[in-house]
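## tool: complex_structure
## caller: assistant
## args:
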Amino acid sequence: MTRKQTLGSAKIAPYVFILPFIASFLIFYLYPIISTVIMGFQQVYPGQVEFIGLENYRKLDNPEFKVALKNSFRYTVYTIALLIPIPLLLSVWLNSGNRAINTVYRSVLYIPSLVSIVVAGTIMRLLFASSDKSFINTLAIAVGVEPRQWLLGGSHQAMILLLILALWRWVGVNIIYFLSGLQAIPDELYEAADIDGASPSQKLWRITIPLLKNTTIFVTTISIFGGFAMFEESFILWAGKPSPNNVGLTIVGHLYNKGFQEGEMGMASAIGIVLLIIVFSLSISFLKLFGFFEAEGRR
Amino acid sequence: MARILHHSRRAFVKYIILTLLALLYLVPLYALTLAAFRPGRDLLRYGITLKTLIPTDLHISTFKGLYTIRDGIYITWFGNSLLLMLLQTSLALFLSSFVAYGLSLYHFKGRKVVTTLVIFLMLVPIQILILPLYKLMITVKLIDTFWGVFLPMIVSPFAIFFFKQYIDGVPRDLIDAGRVDGLNEYAIFFRIVVPIMPPAFSAMAIFMSMQSWNNFLWPLIVLRTGEKFTLPIGLNTLLTPYGNNYDLLIIGALAATLPIIIVFIFFQRYFIAGLTSGGVKG
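## result:
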């Protein structure tokens, strides 16, 4: 037997090495995706299925799904609007000055991302409790704002609460991304700018922000994903119950309710497909817009 | 002179803002820590108030609840989380680095397609797949088992990508030397490549352990019986404020969080490497 035919040969070995991935891809990705596409066209009862064409997609034209869509969309837009500029500015600050002190700040801001969403949500529920004496309402009264019912008060309050939770958890992570981007910018650029007498804000706008383009694209893309896939935050904040008037309902929340609470597998699959299409088309067009697919833009 | 003064005033303002922000960011965990030393039901009426942020009237005895409330079910949850974390992380490290080695080292037919697939899968939100995965788990009877929780997670596209980048940087001479010594392809992986990978393993191990420890949505769907719950799933069942649920919720939340923060403090650089080396620079 020649060595070529054994499993140990350099011809066969590569396929043995990638086998775990191929198996996992087929079982845990490809099969579920195909199954979702098919179920989207079906009415699924226990033990029997019926093809109903586009009926599930037609049924998506309902007020609940529209609320979910709107909430997810708003949440994504707002988180991007907050979670790009704030961490960017903070990372610029943390990139200069005393290294040891900066590390302390960086760590403190990063620690919330280590906290389980269940724990984070629980604390937020308590800090933002409805009573006039709760932490947040005491602060509100102190600065002359009406105390609010944060969890039960309406879509405006609910969104603010969700955004505060997102800020608490993700600012530190995005700071790390931006810091790693900043460290790739050569110091000479800033030295040259200093010689030319550039002001700090000129340096920020003319050097830092343009050169952080790739990091910003990356962070925006994961924010689109995280935003549209958001579910756990509102699930915990409203303790697993529907939020009043669905103020905290998101696309995935709707999928979860339909699929796991109401047993409407077909409808839930249709929601999943819509989510997949939204997320993919948004992030691909976003990446295209910024020329990320051109050879030059990739690193 | 004016310029230096201007500079230091700028730095002063910067650190004031950073300090205020850092304090604000610590409030939730500080509040949780203090609350854990008091009866949980105190929180039911007003939530966390400014007054509860003053560190008085603290009782360490509340922590007894961790092993007394509901016959110490918390200890079971903690053990489950720990076991799942170890299983999932060690298997995922092994399998993902194994695949990454294959993708990095060999020029075989289909390599490009597979590599693209790995990157593409990093972009598929798991939330879309939970429903058919759940159906699959029912079919193969893995609902309410630990296997059901971690099997879908053990070949991680992110980890493959991370390890591939690392192995891409391993000098090819080292591998050729192994061939000259007559090692077969697998022996080269196990005896030459694995021994130089600890830095990459540590970064991924920490990253994955944390993900497993905090994983919520998938275990929530797979696990059914209380004795099999992981910490997040168990704590989630305590959110309804009745009986002594809140007593256990608060001390349990703290006890679930502290270990990760301690690990973070000691192994910071691995956390950061796990986050950043996988992807973008600049």
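## assistant note: Chain B is about 70% helix and 0% strand. Chain B touches chain A through 90 residues (CB under 8 Å). Handing back to user.
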